[in-house]
Amino acid sequence: MRGRLRLLALILILLVVLYPLIWMVGTSFKSPEEIASNIGLLPETFTPGNFSSGWQKFDVNFGRFFLNSAMVSGLTVLGNTISCLLAAYAFGRLRFRMRKFWFSIMIATLLLPGHVLIIPQYILFRNLGWVGGDWPYLPLLVPQFLATEAFFVFLMVQFMRGIPRELDEAAKIDGASPYSIFQHVILPLSRPALVTTAIFSFIWTWNDFFRQLVFLSELEDYTAPVALTLFIDSTSESSVGPMFAMSLLSLVPVFLFFVAFQRMLVEGINTSGLKG
Amino acid sequence: MTTVRTAQGRIDPAGPGPADQQGPGHRRGKRHSENLPGYLFLSPWLIGLLAITAVPMLLSLYLSFTDYDVLTPLSEANWVGWDNYRQMFTEDPTYWHAVQVTLTFALVAVPLKLAAALGVALLLNRAMRGIGVFRGLFYLPSLLGGSVALAIVWVSMFNRDGAFNSFLGLFGIEGAPWVNDPRWALETLMLLAIWQFGAPMVIFLAGLKQVPTELYEAASVDGAGRWRQFRNVTLPMLSPVIFFNLVLETINGFQGFTSAFVLSNGTGGPVDSTLMYTLNLYIKGFVELDMGYASAMAWVFLLAIGLITVVLFRTGRFWVHYSDAEEH
């Protein structure tokens, strides 16, 4: 009896939690008249037209915005995995002067609010001529190649702690240098941590708004989240459907990642309390 | 079991590493034999720390004492002393209003989010079948909720003719135009934050798995009912995880930006009711281009977050219980 009640409660909570998502999917297929009149979850007639009109709503079409987002997210993944892995190897496995000092600095930067850093970084990049420069993505990407996401450094250090020391000791006795230990022992064994880092840095960058809003100023350079805010300006009834359609599309990659890596994502937050 | 240790909220400030894991005196002579490779591997991070974090931060500290406006060259910024800070604290009611909005948001949304996370985690912990599916689906909002797309959906849902009012209409209740009503706009944003309870819930679940069942057995032998078991076994055993989630969510709670931006189209409205600190910072720095003032705001924010973290850690000593009685 108790178990049934518990299950019922869980299902009810789940319905409330999932309602906004289902409603979003339903609304993006409703015609403007239906959005005003039909309060049900699902449309009476499926109107895929929202997708094409949303896609072409602005002077630059959404394909470009999604491509921009994919490029920024893809390069961020590349930068984060490489640079954070290098730093994590140094912190986790090598002995060098002032290691503990640098490690505590790294932990301190974990707690630095990103919204605070953006002001000084903007001033720096602006004075370097990178903001609105030839390639406006430099300010978004360069920091990612310099291991500034301390979360991932920390995550990988934690992971490397779990790799048995005997493995590198054995390699060391065989005369292997720290470089070849990195290449032949640590790198292959760190794959799970690399995958977790890659997934989270993709999702975070794909969803990120503040940095992209600050650094991208030309319409053709916009990423999907920045472009979506253009819909808010035009509040006419007819734009609700297209706005929902494009919002839905922009969540599809994250959703696919969720489906493919659900277990890993959940384990991932357990590893270091990462946020979604 | 590194995962468990972190899930229990221990960040070892001394740092992990080879020296910690080997016996004392092990290879002492060669302790720093890896200086060169160490610094080589660390170099991207070190460059990032200096160039992307430290130097810009110090620069902005300097600029917070100037009237720098981005458009004129750095060298022409005029030194204004403490003016920015004085103005912020004594002559800018909008600033204090934003502080108040942010505090209200964090003080209400964070505890409710944690309560929801703990409640659902307790329900899930006892349920046997399908726990993985539930866990995954409850976690989904945490992945999607921070996006512009979801903020757009949320705001539409709480419009005058949005889904929420349609739902209330079924019971004959006429709802407010929630997102356009200064009395309710911030509450809808709090709800959006609470909706994303999945991430702390997953951490709670991991913590609940660590509570030894013998403790419950012993408690029930002593005649403790469910409530007493929860109060005297679950809560103390879970306190490190609660603390960890509290610190994380509080720091996050102060930084809400996207949803407030979407709801108000970047203005903090209606009537400044959603003017979160970070949104105010954005408006001052990137709309009004008053970078000197915005730098001062950023530094005060940084110090405030640091102070709050320290206070949390200090008070944590009184209620966080580490089972192995390790000094922390």
Name the CATH superfamily assignment of the domain at 92-319 in chain B.
MetI-like
Instruction: Tell the overall outline of chain B.
Output: globular
Task: Please give the radius of gyration of chain B in angstroms.
Answer: 24 Å
How many strand elements of chain A? 0
Transmembrane segments (chain A): 7-26, 65-89, 101-125, 137-160, 181-206, 243-261
Family (chain A): Belongs to the binding-protein-dependent transport system permease family.
Membrane topology (chain A): Multi-pass membrane protein
Protein name (chain A): Sugar ABC transporter permease
How does this structure look, described?
- By secondary structure, chain A is an all-alpha fold.
- In chain A, helix 3 packs across helix 14, helix 9 runs antiparallel to helix 10 and helix 13 (224-233) packs across helix 14.
- Helices cover 72% and strands 0% of the residues of chain A.
- Chain A is globular, with a radius of gyration of 23 Å.
- Helix content of chain B is 67%, strand content 0%.
- The chains are: A mainly alpha (276), B mainly alpha (328).
- The interface between A and B is large, with 111 and 112 residues.
- Chain A: InterPro entries: MetI-like, MetI-like_sf.
- Chain A: One of its GO terms (cellular component) is plasma membrane.
